[in-house]
C-alpha cells in the first residue's frame, strides 16, 4: 500500500474540487433522516411509530427517485436535475416544521422522490473524470468521505433539534440543501469523459446492462448495507442491555474509523478484489461477533476485521458498476445502486430489531453476517454471466470535460 495512488488521483483536474464539494454537499443529506425522526418525536410528541412511518415514506420515495434522477441526468444533463431537486428540497425543508402530521407523511414521500441526488451524482462524475486504472482509488476515497459525512450530519441534526428546536434546524437543513445544489450546479462536473462525449450518441437499451449479473451486483450492495445497519443496531442494543449507553457515541465513532482505515488501505493497493469476496468476508467475520461478550471494548475488537472491510466492500460495488455500464446509462445505473443501498439498510432495521427483541443482539450479529454470505452465494452463478467491461479512457487529459 502506498499514498502515491491518492496523490496521482488528486492531480487529475477537477477531482479535488469535486470530492471537497461532495463531502460538504452530503452533510445536509445525511442529516435529513435524524432531523425528521427527532422532529416527530420531540416537537410533535407523536412517538416512535409515527416517526418511523415518516422516515419510511421518505426512504421509499428516495428509492423510487434515485434511478429516475439518474435517468434524467443521462437524458437531459446534470443542471436541470440539480435545479429541480434543489428547489424541491428548499420548499420541503423550509415548511416541514409547520406541517400537520398527515401532510408531513405525504410531503416526506414527495421530497424523497425529488431528493438531491448528490451521492449518485458524485460517483457518476468521478467515473467520468477519473481514468479507469485510478477509479478504485477514487471510489475508495469517496467512500471514506461518505463515512465522514455520516459521522457529521446526524450528530448536527441531534444537536440542532435538542438545542434550537425543529424550526431552526430544518431551516439550516434547507439552507444546506440550497447551498449543496447551487455549488454542484455552478461546478457542473462532467457526467461523461471527453472521449465518451466524442463517441456516437445512441440510446442504450436497458437489456444491454440491466442483466442478471448487474442485479446480482445490486443484491450484494444491498447485503453490505444490511450487514452494516444490523451491526450498528446490535452494537447499540448490546451496550444498552449492559448499561453502557454513555459510550455508544465513542464506540460507533471507533467503528467508523475501522472503515476509514480499510478504505484508505484498499484504495492504495496495486489491485482490487471482487465485491463478492469482500462482502462474503465481511458477512462471515460478522457472524461470530456476538460471542465476544457484552463488554463494548471486546465487541469493538471483534468488529475490527469486518469493520475494515466496510468501505472497501461498498467502493468495490461502485467501481464494478462503473465498469459494467455504458456511459450513456451510467446515471441510471448509479441511481439503482443507490436504491439498493437504501433497501439494504431499510430492511435490515426491522429484521435486526425483531431478532434483538426475541433472541438478543448476539444472534442479530449472526443473522446479519449470514444474510451477507447467503446473498453472495445466490449472486455467484449469475456473476459468471456478467457483461464485458465497457471501454474507458485511460489518460487523465481525456478524462474530463467541463463544457
Number-wise, the strands total 0
Roughly what is the average pLDDT, rounded to an integer?
Answer: 89
Radius of gyration computed on alpha carbons:
20 Å
- End-to-end separation in angstroms reads 36 Å
Helix proportion of residues, in percent? over 70%
Number of distinct helices: 17
Shape: globular
Low-confidence parts = 391-403
Query: What structural class do the secondary elements suggest?
Result: mainly alpha
**Main sheet makeup:** none
CATH topology (fold) name of the largest domain: Growth Hormone, Chain: A
> What is the CATH class name of the largest domain?
Mainly Alpha
- Report the sheet-strand fraction: under 5%
The CATH architecture classification of the largest domain is Up-down Bundle
Order of helices and strands: HHHHHHHHHHHHHHHHH
Domains, number: 2
CATH superfamily of the largest domain: MFS general substrate transporter like domains
Amino acid at each position: 500500500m502506498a499514498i502515491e495512488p491518492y496523490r496521482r488521483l488528486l492531480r487529475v483536474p477537477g477531482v479535488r474540487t469535486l470530492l471537497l464539494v461532495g463531502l460538504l454537499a452530503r452533510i445536509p443529506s445525511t442529516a435529513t433522516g435524524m432531523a425528521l425522526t427527532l422532529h416527530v418525536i420531540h416537537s410533535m410528541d407523536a412517538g416512535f411509530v409515527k416517526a418511523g412511518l415518516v422516515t419510511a415514506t421518505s426512504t421509499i420515495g428516495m428509492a423510487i427517485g434515485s434511478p429516475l434522477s439518474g435517468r434524467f441526468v443521462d437524458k437531459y444533463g446534470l443542471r436541470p436535475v440539480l435545479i429541480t431537486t434543489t428547489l424541491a428540497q428548499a420548499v420541503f425543508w423550509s415548511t416541514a416544521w409547520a406541517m400537520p402530521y398527515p401532510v408531513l407523511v405525504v410531503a416526506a414521500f414527495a421530497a424523497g422522490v425529488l431528493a438531491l441526488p448528490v451521492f449518485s451524482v458524485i460517483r457518476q462524475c468521478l467515473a467520468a473524470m477519473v481514468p479507469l486504472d485510478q477509479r478504485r482509488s477514487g471510489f475508495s476515497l469517496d467512500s471514506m468521505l461518505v463515512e465522514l459525512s455520516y459521522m457529521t450530519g446526524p450528530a448536527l441534526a441531534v444537536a440542532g433539534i435538542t438545542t434550537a428546536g425543529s424550526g431552526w434546524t430544518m431551516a439550516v437543513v434547507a439552507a444546506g440543501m440550497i447551498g449543496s445544489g447551487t455549488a454542484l450546479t455552478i461546478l457542473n462536473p462532467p457526467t461523461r469523459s471527453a472521449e465518451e462525449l466524442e463517441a456516437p450518441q445512441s440510446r442504450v437499451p436497458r437489456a444491454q446492462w440491466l442483466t442478471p449479473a448487474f442485479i446480482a451486483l445490486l443484491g450484494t450492495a444491498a447485503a453490505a448495507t444490511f450487514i452494516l445497519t444490523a451491526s450498528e443496531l446490535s452494537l447499540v442494543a448490546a451496550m444498552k442491555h449492559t448499561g453502557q449507553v454513555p459510550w455508544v457515541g465513542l464506540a460507533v465513532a471507533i467503528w467508523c474509523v475501522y472503515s476509514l482505515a480499510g478504505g484508505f488501505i484498499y484504495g492504495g493497493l496495486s489491485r482490487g478484489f471482487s465485491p463478492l469476496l469482500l462482502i462474503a468476508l465481511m458477512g462471515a467475520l460478522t457472524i461470530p461477533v456476538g460471542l465476544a461478550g457484552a463488554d463494548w471494548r471486546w465487541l469493538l475488537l471483534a468488529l475490527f476485521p469486518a469493520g475494515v472491510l466496510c468501505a472497501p466492500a461498498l467502493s468495490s460495488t461502485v467501481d464494478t458498476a462503473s465498469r459494467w455500464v455504458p456511459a450513456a446509462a451510467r446515471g441510471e445505473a448509479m441511481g439503482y445502486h443507490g436504491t439498493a443501498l437504501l433497501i439494504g439498510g431499510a430492511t435490515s432495521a426491522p429484521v435486526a430489531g425483531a431478532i434483538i427483541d426475541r433472541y438478543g443482539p448476539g444472534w442479530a450479529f449472526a443473522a446479519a453476517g449470514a444474510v451477507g454470505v447467503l446473498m453472495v452465494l445466490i449472486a455467484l452463478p449469475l456473476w459468471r454471466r456478467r457483461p464485458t467491461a465497457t471501454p474507458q479512457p485511460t489518460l487523465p487529459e481525456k478524462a474530463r470535460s467541463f463544457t
